[in-house]
# Entry
Amino acid sequence: MKFVDEFRDPELGRALAGEILALVEPGRHYKVMEVCGGHTHSIYKYGVDDLLPANVELVHGPGCPVCVIPMGRVDDGIAIAQQEGVIFTCFGDMMRVPGSDGTLLEAKAAGADIRMVYSPLDALRIAKQNPDREVVFFAIGFETTAPSTALTLKRARAEGLTNFSCMCSHVTIVPPLRALLESPDLRLDGFIGPGHVSTIVGARPFEFIPADYGKPVAIAGFEPLDILQAIVMVLRQITEGRCEVENQYKRVVPYEGNLRALEVMAEVFELRPHFEWRGLGFISHSGLKLSEAYADLDAELRFSVPGVRVADPKACQCGEVLKGVIKPWECKVFGSACTPERPIGTCMVSSEGACAAYYNYGRFAREREVV
Amino acid sequence: MTVVAVDRERGVALCSNDEGARSTVETALVEPVAPGDRLLVHAGTAIVLLTEQGDVAE
# Structure
């Protein structure tokens, strides 16, 4: 398959693993964070970490869009969904994220009209088909998904749809990375930059990582050879005493990003002063809301929502997992009380969540178990 | 996904994935597109027009 098979070649994989081995200094421990949940998923699906020397550790970052949504936002979504005449739409993963009193899926089972959609355009179509109902789209995701929501809101405006609105929970990737770099809990040697977010924002927003914190970055694709090559690029920078943003994913990521997407986002969204992230707390200028020009399509202004901050369950350690402080198997409830079938924390819900990746690919402890 | 047909008036394209499943894709961010083009699609919106040569156009 074009663009796929050539990036899964076992021989090339072994060659890159050999390069990694040659680059690392014996006795030194290297911690490299893969920012994106898609990378975490690929690493465990393809066993990339099994090809790494023991002193190269991959630390999982906060780039899973479902995982970072706090419980209070789920409660807000359920509160809107339960209002008379509302059709509430969201991506499939969000349906199973626990709020303080259950999930959207449970609210649906209890009678709320909640529908899973593949894209915001599907939600818009539902609004056109149901002119006597209020259709709300629960928008989540990083800069990869935000342009899709923005274009849909522009379409709603252009088509004069008045029964469509958006509960905007989009987030941006740079502020949590800065928060992690400021954290005393975590010492990192470099970053595998997010591939798909970078298609939109480009590579330039990550230049602060080498400039301000002296850490190398390699933006990477999602195939096993992409990730191995990005690790080589990070380690080579360390070995050669260089520190910059490199782009391994040039077949998809232009250095300046997608200017049309950035333009439409700037028109439709504006930064919130603060946004709460699960496990990371409130981070300034890290969340998006609808701009004043689109405020009439803002579901949080159209409907009343509790807007209450809800603490995570005490047993759940998603926060530490999202910060890369602990591995999923170190969480007290991982694989016992918290499983993909009955998740307690968000990291076990989405396929991009680190806990789900570990669970689905047999990483119940430090060593792999045969499943 | 591969572009099968383009509806320029609506700014969308009918696209097919590698298993043959078809869906409507928003193309505003990568226009112009033509049948046969390969797109990277996220949440129903094409975010990159892929090229046979390798690197994307800067």
